[in-house]
Specification:
single chain; 503 residues; alpha/beta; 6-stranded parallel β-sheet
């Protein structure tokens, strides 16, 4: 990224992160606060920038309780306090009692999250940005949604990344009461309705944090190219009109794109310590058979190393994940492939968990189906044992299971939408193309058809099937990784730094 003429200073502002490089400070790797994929993407991007020689800085809340829990064994051994081992000036911790005693990144109460967001952004705007003096600012999600307006006012290029379609709202009066001088950049914010003046907007016209981030940023990205197109096309009713409008404006102006997240590198069958037997693409048939037998014995399923095993890896949420489609088709899938001993393992919490328990109990499917609460160890074990995963999502902003599964040699059976569309191609074994089985019409019949396609593949001669899975495992490991994701962000930074700013 750096050139002979310039080494840009990049400030990444994120409410969560994992495993920063040790060279950013002796204890930076302990500053882990994670709620989802944003944490891993942030850490991977920081590491890639650092390795490229960029002058990269990170701003995040000072979650003292979370950090102390990770540092505690070292602190006790060395008789130190957490304040004496904070990293150097590349990691900037926003100070406020609102974060100090939290044991999780986000509160379960919406009003509390607004308070956390404003405290974080106040420290970034008032203290961290003036101290770092960045050449480019990269903000992430609604928790940082006011900062792009300040960045635009200051003439600093700003990228705003949307990981989750969630927002909060607050008036200028409330924002300023929390110590942010919103009058400085109020006209770059996005309000619920038009206001001709600051005074008119101040007390009764709420600011939408997520839409403000999109509106004010110089460039915007979602975590899937196709999901961004779907929003612009109006395919998702849950995306409110203001956000769709602002994303459409950025998209058609050439200032909006999609960059896929990547799985945690711990998902690797060759090194995964949570699975029964490690394996590579070269010995995957034996590895998967041993893992399958171990899982079947653990869960009380019929022991059969040749049984086709399907895995449900996502939460059982009927709003997004399409579990109602599987519930509708479930009896037919199990009974129609009874002679092949088709098995299904759920490792997921959610509203539909009891629905599947009831189906299993009613039809006596206990030897073929296991419905389990989410457990990280069991999740890894099932990826290693499964032949296929089920992802009939109605929408998917990015999705990670459909990237993780092929790395383990388990092929996705999925609805063609969002991040799934960007990562899965329908398999054609005769042409050596594809890595899963996609259905286009979102209904139970579409899902059943895709399961039938997967079973047709499963019945292919072992040699032919092995060649395809080896190819898919190799391609997936090469494609679905943080290095590729970080490279795309770095390319976007370079594009932004070369582009003239228009305020």
């Amino acid at each position: 990224m750096p050139s002979a003429k310039r080494n840009p200073r990049v400030l990444i502002i994120t409410p969560e992160v994992t495993y920063l490089p040790d060279r950013m400070g002796n204890f930076s790797r302990y500053l882990t606060a994670k709620a989802g994929g944003l944490a891993d993407v942030s850490a991977a991007l920081v590491s890639a920038l650092f390795n490229e020689g960029a002058d990269v800085h990170v701003a995040l809340p000072d979650y003292r309780a979370i950090f102390h829990d990770r540092l505690a064994p070292f602190l006790e051994r060395e008789h130190l306090t957490i304040r004496s081992v904070m990293p150097d000036d590349r990691v900037h911790l926003a100070q406020d009692r609102a974060f100090f005693y939290l044991n999780r990144v986000y509160s379960a109460h919406g009003g509390e999250n607004t308070k956390l967001s404003l405290a974080f952004q106040r420290e970034v705007i008032n203290n961290i940005v003036p101290r770092v003096r960045p050449d480019l600012i990269h903000c992430n999600d609604w928790m940082t949604g006011l900062i792009p307006a300040m960045s635009r006012q200051m003439g600093i290029p700003c990228l705003f990344t949307i990981h989750n379609i969630h927002t909060v709202k607050a008036t200028l009066a409330h924002i300023e009461d929390r110590g942010i001088d919103a009058a400085y950049f109020w006209d770059h914010l996005f309000f619920e309705r038009f206001s001709a003046s600051y005074e008119e907007a101040w007390e009764s016209n709420a600011v939408d944090f997520l839409s403000s981030g999109v509106f004010a940023a110089h460039f915007v990205n979602t975590v899937s190219p196709r999901f961004l197109e779907e929003i612009v096309e109006g395919r998702h009713g849950f995306v409110e009109w203001p956000l769709r409008q602002q994303l459409s404006n950025k998209f058609y102006a050439g200032c909006g794109t999609g960059i896929l997240n990547a799985p945690d590198p711990g998902f690797n069958p060759q090194t995964d310590k949570m699975i029964y037997r490690n394996y590579t693409r070269d010995d995957h048939p034996d590895g998967k058979r041993e893992n399958k037998l171990h899982l079947q014995e653990t869960l009380g399923l019929t022991r059969d190393m040749n049984a086709p095993l399907f895995f449900w890896p996502s939460r059982l949420d009927p709003i997004q994940k399409g579990c109602q489609l599987l519930a509708e088709a479930f009896y037919g899938i199990i009974s129609d492939y009874w002679d092949q001993n088709l098995q299904v393992v759920f490792v997921a919490n959610g509203d539909y968990q009891q629905v599947f328990r009831d189906i299993v109990n009613h039809h006596g499917f206990q030897s073929r189906v296991a419905v389990c609460d989410f457990n990280e160890n069991l999740e890894h074990q099932t990826y290693a044992a499964a032949d296929f995963i089920l992802m009939p999502s109605l929408f998917e902003p990015c999705g990670l299971p459909q990237m993780i599964a092929p790395i383990y040699g388990a092929l996705p059976v999925a609805h063609d939408t969002g991040g799934i569309h960007d990562t899965i191609v329908h398999l054609n074994a005769h042409q050596d193309t594809g890595n899963g089985f996609l259905f286009e019409t979102f209904d139970a019949a579409g899902l059943y058809w895709a399961v039938a396609q997967a079973m047709d593949f499963f019945r292919l001669p072992e040699t032919q099937k092995r060649i395809q899975i080896e190819r898919i495992m190799q391609q997936s490991a090469a494609s679905f990784n943080h290095a590729n994701t970080a490279r795309q962000y770095i390319d976007l930074y370079e594009k932004m730094l070369e582009r003239p700013l228009i305020n």
